[in-house]
Amino acid sequence: MADTPWRRLRGLGRHLRGERRSLALLAAVVPLGVGLQLVAPEMLRRFVDGALSGSPDAVLLTVAAWYCAAALGQTAVSIGGDHLAARLAWRTTNRLRAELVAHCLRRPAAFYQRHPPGELVDRVDGDVTRLAGVMSSLLLEVAAQALLVVGILAALFRLDQVLALVFAPFTLCTLLLLRRLVGRAVPFVTARQASVADLLGFLEERLAGAEDLTANGAARHTMRVLEDRLGTVYDRARRAARVSVLWPATVQGLSAASVVLALVVSVWLHARGQLTTGTAFAALSYAMLLRRPLLALTARFQELEGAIVSVGRLAELVRERDGHDGPPGPPPGARPPEAGGPPALALPPKDARPWRDGPLDLRFEGVFFHYDPGEPVLTDVSFHLRPGERLGVVGRTGSGKSTVVRLLFGLHRPVRGTITVGGREIRPPDVPALRGRIALITQEVHVFHATLRDNLAFFDRSVGDSRILDALGQAGLDGWLRQLPDGLDTVLGSGARGMSAGEEQLVALARAFLRDPAVVLMDEPTARLDPHTEELLAPAMERLLRDRTAVVVQHRPHALRHVDRILVLDGGRVVEHGERTALAADPASRFHGLLRTGRAA
Ligand SMILES: Nc1ncnc2c1ncn2[C@@H]1O[C@H](COP(=O)(O)OP(=O)(O)OP(=O)(O)O)[C@@H](O)[C@H]1O
C-alpha cells in the first residue's frame, strides 16, 4: 500500500502504546470541558429572562452562581487537559527522539557527510517537536471541537428551530471549506523546513570551522553565503505564511459573519415576538462560542499540515539504511548520551552472531569497490593476514587505502569479491558483533565534553576503574593522568580541559586497549602529529598491535616498522605485496623506494 502522509501519521500511533491511562483521562476531560462551555449561554438566558420577568433575587443569584461555577470549572478542566496533553506529548515524542538518535548513531560516516549535525538536530528535535501536538491530543481535540460544534447546534435547536436551520448549513459550509483548504500549505511548509534545516547545517559547519575561516580570510564570504541562505529562508517562510494565512483569515471572516447572522436573525425573531430577550442573548452567545471550535480546528489543521511535513522528513531519514548498521557508537560530532543514561556501546542486535574469541585472520578476495558507479576505487584487491599478522598499507593519496579500512570495518560492502574476518564473510546483521572485536583508530579523535572515565568507557558505567586505569597505563598516559586535577573525573572536551593532538590520540589508543580488540585498524593515526610526538606515541602503538591482527594505513613509510607485511596500492590496484623486511631490503621494490624518498608513493 502507498506510503502516504496519513499512513505515516497513523504509524506514529505505536508511540502512544502504554499511554492508555493518560489517553483515557484526556478522553474523559474533553467532553466535560465541552459540556461546561455549553452551559454558560443557557445560564445567561435564564438570568436575562428571569431578570426581565421579575424573578426573585435568590433565583437570579443561584443562576449567576451556576454561571460562575461553570466558568471556573471550564478553566480548571482546560488547565488539567493541557497538562495531561503536554505530559503525553513529552513522553511520546521523547520515545520518538530516542528512536531517531539510535537510528542516526547506527549510520555510517557517509550519512553524516550527507546530513550535517545542524540539520540532524532540526530533524530529531525540531520536527519531533512539531509532531508533539499530533501525537498527544490532536485527535481528541478535533473530536472535542467537533462535539462542541454539534452541541452548539443542538442548543440552538433547543432555543429556536429557525436559528438552528440558519446555522446548521452555514457551519457545514465552513467545515467543508476548511476540509478543502487542508494540505494547501504542505509543499510550501516543506520547502520552508528544508531551507531552515539547510541553514542550520550551514551554521553548524561554519561555526565549527570558525577558526579556519577567520584565519583564511573567508569570514566575509561566509557572511555573504549566510545572507543568501537567510534570504531563501525568508522567501520560503513568506510564501508558506501567505498560503497558511488563507484559512485562518477565511474562518475569522466566516465567524464574524456568523455573529452578524445571529444578531440579525435574533433581532428579527425578537421583533416578531418569537424570541425572548434572554434567548436572543443566548443565541448571540452561542454564535460567538461557535467561533471558538472553528478557530481551534483551523489552528489544529494548520498544526497537522506542519506535522505532515515533519513526518515526511522523519520518514525520509529513517528510510536511509545505506551501509551496514553499526553499534550505536559515537559518530563524528555526535553529543554523548546523558550521564547515567544507557551505555553508548549498546548490545548488538539479537540476530547478530558473535565472533569467536582470540586473534582473527583477515582476507580480501578479488574485492572490487566503488562509491559512485563508473568510478572504481578498488579493483581486484586480494590479500590474507594470518591471526596476529600486521599489514601496512601505503600508496598515493586517493589510491584507496582508507577504503580498505572502511570495508573491513563494515562501513561499506564490496561490489564484487569477498571480505572475511575470522573465516566469516562480513554480512550486515553481523557487523555490530564484528565491531565489538575491532578497534578503529583514525586521525580524528572525538573527545566528548565529559569526564575522562566516560570518554574512555563511552559512558558505560559497568566498566570498572581498574580496567580504565590499566588501559591508560598501557597507552602510556599514567603520567598525564597524575597531572589531571580530578583524575578520572576530570572533565575533558570543549570548554573544559584542553588536550594536545598527541594526548587525544593517546586517549584513542587507551579506548582501544580498554576494548581489548582482536583486530586493530589504523587509518593514518599520526597524520596530525609532528615526528617528535609520533615517536612518543610509537611504544603505545606497538603495544596495541602486539599479538593482534592489524591493518595500518600510513603516509610515512618509516612509521610502519611494527608491521609484518606491506601492501602498496596504486589507483585502487595492488601493485606490491610482501614481507616488510624483504621489501625493505630489495632495492627494486616500490617500498624500498618509498623508504628512500620518505614519500607515500
Ligand atoms: N564517501 C565517498 N564518496 C565518494 N567518493 C569517495 C568517498 N570516499 C572516498 N572517495 C574517493 O575514493 C577514492 C579513494 O579514497 P580513499 O580515501 O580510500 O583514498 P586514500 O588512499 O585513503 O587517500 P588519502 O591518502 O588521501 O587518505 C578517492 O578518489 C576518493 O575521492
TrEMBL record:
It is found in: Cell membrane. Coiled coil: none annotated. It is a multi-pass membrane protein. InterPro entries: AAA+_ATPase, ABC1_TM_dom, ABC1_TM_sf, ABC_transporter-like_ATP-bd, P-loop_NTPase, Type_1_exporter. Signal peptide: none annotated. The keyword ATP-binding applies. The keyword Transmembrane helix applies. The chain crosses the membrane at residues 21-40, 60-81, 138-157, 163-182, 245-269. PROSITE patterns: ABC_TM1F, ABC_TRANSPORTER_2. Residues 32-306 form the ABC transmembrane type-1 domain. GO terms for molecular function: ATP binding. Residues 320-352 are annotated as: Disordered. Residues 362-596 form the ABC transporter domain. It holds the Pfam family ABC_membrane. Keywords: ATP-binding, Membrane, Nucleotide-binding, Transmembrane, Transmembrane helix. Residues 336-349 have a biased composition (Low complexity). This is ABC transporter ATP-binding protein. It comes from Streptomyces lavendulocolor. The lineage of its organism: Bacteria, Bacillati, Actinomycetota, Actinomycetes, Kitasatosporales.
